[in-house]
Amino acid sequence: MSAVRTLGIGTLMHAKHLSRSSFEIALALIIPLVQATLAVYLFRAGDEPHRLLEAAVGAGLMGVWSSVLFGSGGAIQNQRWQGTLEMIMLAPRRPVLVVLPITAATALTGTYALLATLLWGRLIYGIRLDFAHPLRFLAAALACVAGLGMFGLLLASTFVLIRNANALANPLDYPIWLLSGMLVPISVLPSWTAPIAAVLPTTWGARALREATSGGPVWPSIGICLAISTACLILGAFLLTSFERRARAAGTLALS
Amino acid sequence: MDSEYAIEAEGLRRVYRTRTGWIRPRRETVEAVRGVDLTVRRGELFGLLGPNGAGKTTTIKMLNTLLIPTAGTARIRGFDVVRETREVRRRIGYVFGGDRGLYDRLSALDNLRYFAELYAVPAREQRHRIAELLELVGLTGRERERVEGYSRGMRQRLHIARGLLHRPEVLFLDEPSIGVDPVAARELRRTVADLAANGTTVLLTTHYMAEADELCDRIAVIADGRIQALGTPAQLRRRADGRRVVEVEAYGVPATALTALRDLPGVRETALEERGALQLLTVQSDAGVDVQGDVLRELAGVRLGRVNSREPTLEDAYVAIVNAA
Amino acid sequence: MTTLRLIGVGGLLAYRALFNWTTPAMYVGTLLAGPTFQLLFFAYLGRQLGVADDGFFILGNAVLAASSACVFGGTMAVANERRYGTLGHVLLSPRSRTVIFWGRVLPYAGNGLLIAAFTLLMGTLMLGLRIPPAALPGIALALAAGSLACGFFGLTLGALGLRFRDVWVVSNVSAALLLLLTGVNVPRENLPPWMADIGQFLPITHAAEAARLLAAGHGLASAAPALGTELLVGAGYALLAAVLLRVFEAESRRRASLETR
């Protein structure tokens, strides 16, 4: 119970901290709108002009992923720069309880992008928000946030253990958008990419959202998304514990 | 598991390995702490003094679990800092100087709420404890402002409040008064003294000799990664017993004159401190020898200000210890 | 001659000092892999939605690939001076600032050209596009013109950095807008006219058009007008940057806002 409370308050505080950065907010709101606009014209130019709502949802989810990729990938490095890494690691808690709220917060603030693209689509392009399953859409969105937050923990712990991983991960927004079929499922991709897509929680999150938008079972996709994410969380927690020990041995918790 | 000592360290050593460069990485090892033994009793206010790079912060970070010692062992209230980290962390607080380490875009209240949760302060007590600490550090009324607008002194006080949230039995204060104005520094000293009086064990590092002299029950002088002297302020001061200090204000003392001064009969230490355009030359000598005349003779041709002869202070003792290291 | 030296040597030194991406991992990740992934994303999306053929996306995104290095580089050229607190020293130099800052653009543009060429190579290899060898010199020219124009565009944004604190928001958003407005990924005839019109005044637009014409086998003569327009756009931003730098410098001396940190 106290662990849940710690996660909740931690996520809230980190989300508050992120939300007050004008830089983060400007990027989190404006760039997805540009992407959504791009998607709308691409859909109109192509064969799918009737699926504009999917374009808006997809562009929003792309924004959520960007937020998680950059926020969680750099989560530990950011804390180090702020000088707060030592202070949070000093807590008499498991490292996962300390770091998960940070990555969950990046997923939570990522939903600003989703809200923004939906609103934008409604106001500018008159896209009617008639979801096939409104309640399930909400559930799918929540599952995406939770799932990506947990996936983010794996990113955070991996990136901090591998030298320069953060730099190499910088361009990972496009491949994940593409492989997970966030905007549209890409059936024309080479077949070897299918297994990769199948193990990405983003694939199933995107699928759940799409099913809730245009019709489909939704729940199985939500279930698979959360199951994969939970596996990521467990793996990430192990990696974090190892990171903590290595960082204490190497003296890299502080900036200098 | 109850130890009469709050802090015990035996043979602590710490080596840093650094790697620089990309194409041809250069590896270097630096031995920051080379064998530190110390014990601090419960409720004691213990000072760790030393020049920059002497190993003070490294020692503190080994004691508070942030660094794993390369060799040696340490226990906090009987718990091993490497193996029983969670038990240790429940019992310690850590405050460092400077203005980093806080969430700038959150209010002081939110910072404290967050850390209260992380540091496992029971939910029922949090509100009361936070209010109490805000009062203690004098931030009541400003707790809802974002930290980014705080002065350095306010941040420092918030650091202290954070370090005390979970009522730690042992408090590590790493140069808490750095960059704090004199009035705030005095209040800080009072707070620290009160904490110690109420039974908290405090390990303090500082650059300010007067601060250490006023507060600490015992002081360890650390230089070059080793403890060079350990005792009460009075005992350390006695290191400079039988000495006399001549202070000369001067402008542009040449290096040759300084070497010559060091070789004068009876002279034990010399130190030159830059104070803007002015230099303060301190010469310690055996009390029985009056070196003032010789000193002024060596400085012939140098523009001089005030000249003063006095009894040694803790600072002189400190200079003597560090120079001997 | 000394002016040329100031442009060349001064520019290179500033490049090494101020470019934040010079570690190999950062370079490979952000500047080489990033644009290639971006190209693949839009090419597959285009295939799926039936928007245009591969060549459209490959050439467009290759020209656009220069933009991240150039736009952010140009911004860094000015903005990081302020961050490192060295801007005052640069402005104290008796040399012409216009020349100093124009000189800084060249290495970024060169770097952009390299990235664009790499992206083009990756795109053609991975998606199997054949470009007539005779078209290659012309395409190289188009990539270079796009890079240069982008560099001056970035310098303009950097100049805004002297005046506005959140210049990185501006450059990030500008980079995203290039994606939309230059017709690189959405055929211009599918954009609303006002968006297409804005695109006319942005770098990349005309270079991408020229590159597509060339790759389709039209000669240099038919691509020349587009190439010329791209260079004109670049020159326009070079001038705009110079004017802004001068205005903001004068203003910041009046208001002592040069060193805000």
TrEMBL record, chain A:
Pfam families: ABC2_membrane (PF01061). InterPro entries: ABC2_TM (IPR013525), Nod_factor_ABC_transporter (IPR051784). Keywords: Membrane, Transmembrane, Transmembrane helix. The chain crosses the membrane at residues 21-43, 55-76, 97-125, 137-162, 174-198, 218-240. Its main location: membrane. The keyword Chloroplast does not apply. It is found in: Membrane. Residues 18-211 form the ABC-2 type transporter transmembrane domain. It is a multi-pass membrane protein. This is ABC-2 type transporter transmembrane domain-containing protein. The lineage of its organism: Bacteria, Bacillati, Actinomycetota, Actinomycetes, Micromonosporales.
TrEMBL record, chain B:
PROSITE patterns: ABC_TRANSPORTER_2 (PS50893). Its main location: membrane. Pfam families: ABC_tran. The keyword ATP-binding applies. Residues 7-249 form the ABC transporter domain. One of its GO terms (molecular function) is ATP binding. It is found in: Cell membrane. Keywords: Antibiotic resistance, ATP-binding, Nucleotide-binding, Transport. It is a peripheral membrane protein. This is Daunorubicin resistance protein DrrA family ABC transporter ATP-binding protein. The lineage of its organism: Bacteria, Bacillati, Actinomycetota, Actinomycetes, Micromonosporales.
Automatic annotation (TrEMBL), chain C:
InterPro entries: ABC2_TM, ABC_2_transport, Nod_factor_ABC_transporter. The keyword Plastid does not apply. Its main location: membrane. It is found in: Membrane. The lineage of its organism: Bacteria, Bacillati, Actinomycetota, Actinomycetes, Micromonosporales. The chain crosses the membrane at residues 25-44, 56-79, 105-129, 135-160, 167-186, 231-248. It comes from Actinoplanes palleronii. Keywords: Antibiotic resistance, Membrane, Transmembrane, Transmembrane helix. It comes from the Bacteria. It is a multi-pass membrane protein. This is ABC-2 type transporter transmembrane domain-containing protein. Residues 21-212 form the ABC-2 type transporter transmembrane domain. Pfam families: ABC2_membrane.
